[in-house]
Specification:
Helices cover about 15% and strands about 40% of the residues. By secondary structure, the protein is α+β, with helices and mostly antiparallel strands. It has one domain: Roll (2,3-Dihydroxybiphenyl 1,2-Dioxygenase, domain 1).
């Protein structure tokens, strides 16, 4: 099953954005990433449905520094699900720009026809994000499939 995993947004003021999505939308802050320059928030269904990335020089939508960072689509669980997605992309002739082990998930990154970044990810079945936030402290690392 394919489902939207999370949305990533560049924000000028990280603390203000966290307060908005926490207080107005009702999401819970799960943790901070990138030395505190990013935050992950969740409504409880995923390890995070929203990634906020501090980018003080962010511009209006449609510019090279637009607020939308990427959309992320969950393609399953484990590396085999991600390998299947990669094989499908290769068959279609779609370039994979990178692969990353985020500890809580494994991801492929690509661009849509408009140039927007798209992440296809599979959850890491060895990480229980419901009971531990240790994954927020572990660095993401490049990987190969």
């Amino acid at each position: 099953m394919i489902e939207l995993g999370h949305v990533a947004i560049r924000v000028r003021d990280l603390e203000q954005a966290i307060r908005f999505y926490r207080d107005a939308v009702g999401l819970r802050e799960v943790g901070r990433l990138a030395g505190g320059r990013a935050a992950v928030l969740s409504g409880g269904r995923q390890h995070h449905e929203l990634l906020l990335v501090a980018a003080p020089a962010v511009s209006e939508a449609g510019s090279p520094r637009q607020p939308l960072y990427h959309t992320a689509w969950r393609v399953g669980e484990g590396l085999n699900a991600l390998r299947e997605a990669k094989a499908r992309l290769e068959t279609l002739g779609i370039e994979v720009a990178g692969a990353v082990d985020h500890r809580v998930s494994f991801s492929l990154y690509l661009r849509d026809p408009e140039g927007n970044q798209v992440e296809l990810f599979a959850d890491n079945p060895e990480v229980d994000w419901r009971t531990s936030d240790a994954w927020t402290q572990a660095p993401s690392v490049p990987m190969s499939l």
